[in-house]
Design brief:
By secondary structure, the chain is α+β, with helices and mostly antiparallel strands. Helices cover about 30% and strands about 20% of the residues. It contains 22 helices and 27 strands. Strands 2, 3, 4, 5, 8, 16 and 17 form a 7-stranded mixed beta sheet that branches. A 5-stranded antiparallel beta sheet has the order 10-9-21-20-19, with helices on both faces. Strands 1-6-7 form a 3-stranded antiparallel beta sheet. The radius of gyration is 39 Å and the shape is elongated.
Length: about 675
Amino acid sequence: MRDFKAARAPEPNAKWLKLRVRLLFGLFLMLLGVAFGRAVQLQVFEQEKLRGMAQDQYVRHIEIPARRGDIFDRRGTPLAQSVEVDSIWVDPSMLPDVKAASRALAKALKMDPDELGARLARARRFAWVKRQARPAEVAAVKALALPGVGFSKEPKRFYPQRELGAHVVGTVGMDGRGLEGLELAFHDELSGQNSSTSGFRDAKGRKLLVQGALDPLQRQGAAVTLTLDRHIQYVAEKALSRAVEDARAVAGMAVVLDPRTGELLAVANHPRFNPNTPESSTRSGMRNRAALDTFEPGSTLKSFVVATALEEKAITADSLFFCENGAWRVGRHTINDTHSYGWLAPQGILQVSSNICMAKIAQALGREKFVKGYQAFGFAERTGLSLPGEGRGVLPFPKAEVSLATQSFGQGMTATAVQIASAYGALANDGVLMRPYLVSKVVDPDGVVLLENRPTELRRAVSAKVARQVVGMLESVVVKGGTATKAAMEDYRVAGKTGTAQKADPVARGYSDKRIASFVGVVPAESPRAVILVVVDEPKTDVYGGTVAAPAFKEIATAAMAHLAVPPSRTVAPEVAVAAVSPAPAAAKPGAKASGVARTALADAVTETPEPGTVRVPDLQGAVGREAVVKLLAAALEPQVLGSGRVVSQTPPAGSLVEKGARVTLELAARQ
């Protein structure tokens, strides 16, 4: 039978079907080739790139800040330490209601809700809420159970002794960088090296540490040991604060130095501040005035003029100088003493602190030797305490006769408190000047000593014989007839010197009515163990160093001698009378009150003597108009009156030297 189906011609649709199958197969084959090629590209050529991108999704390098090194006193008492505390942060994108969360966090942390809300609104994925929070604050935030809130451990600087030695130790900022004092000076050594480690994070972005804890030594900064003694520092700060407050002064400084080694046992400043809460103190209140600030010392420098003159054989211990009965003209100026004295030997000059006779000793010494003498004792050069901004002081060459005179009693030149204490340390150390230092050693956590200071001799300022001679003379200052009887101690011999200096007025280019009162003492005088300097800035109750600063010295010295276990002096020096060959009149003998209005110690130490044809403008402040006019006419001056009532200002100012007949303008105003 014939198969009609087989003999039928193929339909056109079957032909196109085969073609479509082939085309579809080719298309799939091409797509498979593209996919294979892309896979080869990703797995072979872009393998490292993709692996890094993947790790960025779940692997994080965690920065672990270093633990700042500790600071200790000489006996190992910690003055500064670092502790791990929690800092609070938040991912604002995970908060359902940013404003509500801000109010809740601000209430728990006692913060400003508006400020915190604005900060969270600006951030996208991370914002600090509060760094270095207290444990109670951390617990309060955890109790809120807010999503997106996290806690990170950060090292926080802690000062266990609070105000004690704060000006020396200094402070650090929130980021752990040193801002003041030794924290700034030794920041690199204290800060150590930050560490980093790898860790995973989960789907919520929380960090999961996968490596073991790092060796604490790798994160620890070096330890700094100071020469300060905690007990002596405490006594010095308390005594200084009491002296400043009793005198209603603006500030004060105290330095205790071991003259044999140059170690600073105490460096105190007032006002004090707590470095744990630096925001409650002003920048000036945190300044270490004793080491950084310079000032005109006043009569405490007379000891070095006498020592240099004895060393250069310009004078002897028996040389006599006439003190001109209280007033001595030098050129157009007049040098004044607080009391009238006749003939005095060097010991008497130091005992009563005569400016006139000290100026005559400087003249006998000569300008060049005078300046070299001050330089030999370390003035006008930095002591090298490793503190940033340490003062150097200024010692101008005294070209004029009056400059030589004023510099002989410590005016017209500047120095720091540490420089003065160090210079007296040279006298107490048989004439050898030691380098003062604060830092004993700096040690790495592994025990490697990075820095170690040892007693260092700088130079011999004067011979041992002269040094002992001057210290013996200074014992007369604290006995009856001297200027610092309040510094005398029952069980120890004391040698010291008072100072009352005028403060310069940079605006008027002269001296103001403000004073700096000071006393520096050496104890025990026969075998010195401590040099103690107390400076009171702008006292209001009294301006004399023997009254304002000497009691604080005695308080510090009493505690220091007991703490250092110094045996009492074998013999207490007898009272030494003033070596006056030609005594002053009875009404003007040492210790007696001067007739008329008593002069301030150095307020009128140097006055300008009017030239012929000149007159000094009287002080008319507060006088009624008619009275002021009468006084001006009596002084041969022409008055010009503005307003009515009492005088509130005058030009030229009171005390100015003007020609006779000059016009003086008075501004008057009625009392309100």
